[in-house]
Write a structure and sequence with these properties.
GO terms for molecular function: diadenylate cyclase activity. It is built from 11 helices and 7 strands. The protein is α+β, with helices and mostly antiparallel strands. The protein has a 7-stranded mixed beta sheet, sandwiched between helices. Strand 6 and strand 7 form a beta hairpin.
Amino acid sequence: MVDWLRNLMDNYTEGMYLPQIQVMDVIEILILTVFIYEILLWIKNTKAWMLLRGIIMLGAFILLAWIFQMHTILYLAAQSINVLAIAAVVVFQPELRRALEKLGEKNLLSSINPFDRSRENERFSDETADSIVNACFDMGNVCTGALIVVEQVIRLNEYEMTGIELDCKVSSQVLINIFEHNTPLHDGAVIVRGDRITSATCYLPLSDNMSISKDLGTRHRAALGMSEVCDALVIVVSEETGLVSYAMGGVLTRGVNREELREKLSQIQYRNSEPKKKFAIRKGWRRE
């Protein structure tokens, strides 16, 4: 019986090339799998998804033209492929820039050293975190709108230039005074770098996410839009309801309490803190 099976397999595989799989081949396949997965996840989590669907439809149309031998259409497609490649780079420029920035954020040396929690690795102090939390909920109690951007790895110089330079220490009193109604600095966002407020009245990019609730106004849309183009934590206080929310990584979390906001600030307080959910799909918004 064994000989019969061996002869059957020999006859079936005769003339076929069966490559020998080495350990490096398996490692290479795993690397390519992760790489392709990350690309697909990046496309899914950005505006590139809609553009990719348009490219797929265009490719299907060209395929039909090839099947039915529409020579004019095939000639035009062949002549315009170089232009389309350049146009794709131009159209995808914000997404490509963000992808490269995310790649540059990875700090392998610090991630393999979990005991490196020195003061030098702090983005901001506990006093700054407590001041931000106290200011947000004090303003929420009186329905004072606020928008606070806490910088992480990506520098926000281009957004600082849209506002007024301050360069003062973070405190709850200063933040409350900035966002007080009818004051010169209350309109726009405040950018916090380390333990200092770098600028106020900054303009932030608005999100074009169509799944955002219509109940949310410009302030929340700006918070979500800012979190889509950088790694900052954006805290927003609603002027209508007084609810405190935060946006990060393209996710808007609404109606958090004091402990939840403080915990989120603690998660980004150290420079070598990285989220553990590597393969979590983070794009969108979540309502608490």
